[in-house]
Design a protein that fits this description.
Length: 192
C-alpha cells in the first residue's frame, strides 16, 4: 500500500492527477483505512475539479485518523475556495490545533480573514503565527495590511522595507503598493 501511495505522490507532483487517482485508489483498496492515501486521493480529485469525490475522500481520511491535520487542512482549503468561510475557518483552526506549526493552514487563515475583512480575527491569527514562525515575511505582509487600516504608515514602511518577495510577484506587488500608499499618506511623494 505504501508503494502505491508513493507512486501516487510522484504522479501528483508531476501533475498527472488521473494516474495519481489510480495509484491512491490501489493503496486504499489494499488498506481501506489508509488515512494519508485517502487524503492524497482527495487532493488528486480536487486537482481534477471533482469536488464531491475530493470531500468524500478527505472525510474518509479524517474518519480513519481524526488526528490527521492534513485532512482538516484540505477540507478547510477546499471550503475556502468555495467561499464557505465559517466552515473553512473551523477546519483550518482544527488543523492548527493538531499541528501547531503547519504554516499553510495559517496562511489560508490569514488570506481568509483578510479577504473577509475580519480584522479582529486577522490580528489574533497574526499574533499566534508570529509566535510559531518568527520573522516570516508573509505574516509581516498581512500585519502591514492591517496596520494600513489603522493608519500606522511609518511602521508599515519600517516592516516592509526589510523584506523581499523576489520569488512571488503577487506578494512583491502587494508589498510595493502598500509602501507606495504609505509614503503617499506621509506626503513623501518622491518615494511613493
Amino acid at each position: 500500500h505504501d508503494a502505491f501511495n508513493n507512486l501516487g505522490l510522484i504522479s501528483l507532483r508531476q501533475g498527472n492527477n488521473s494516474d495519481a487517482v489510480k495509484y491512491f485508489e490501489s493503496a486504499v483498496k489494499l488498506k481501506p483505512d489508509f488515512s494519508l492515501a485517502l487524503c492524497n486521493l482527495g487532493l488528486a480529485y480536487s486537482n481534477l475539479k471533482n469536488i464531491d469525490k475530493a470531500f468524500e475522500n478527505f472525510k474518509k481520511s479524517h474518519e480513519a485518523n481524526p488526528s490527521n491535520y492534513l485532512a482538516y487542512y484540505n477540507i478547510g482549503n477546499l471550503k475556502k475556495r468555495l467561499g464557505e468561510i465559517k466552515t473553512a475557518e473551523d477546519f483550518l483552526l482544527k488543523s492548527i490545533e493538531i499541528q501547531k506549526n503547519y504554516f499553510p493552514a495559517y496562511n489560508n487563515l490569514l488570506e481568509l480573514y483578510d479577504k473577509s475583512n475580519q480584522d479582529d480575527k486577522l490580528l489574533k491569527i497574526i499574533n499566534k503565527a508570529e509566535i510559531e514562525f518568527k520573522d516570516n515575511d508573509i505574516i509581516k505582509l498581512f500585519k502591514s495590511k492591517l496596520l494600513y487600516k489603522s493608519k500606522n504608515f511609518k511602521e508599515i514602511i519600517n516592516i516592509l522595507s526589510k523584506i523581499n518577495f523576489e520569488n512571488d510577484n503577487l506578494q512583491e506587488q502587494t508589498k510595493q503598493e502598500l509602501l507606495a500608499k504609505s509614503y503617499d499618506q506621509l506626503k513623501n511623494f518622491e518615494k511613493a
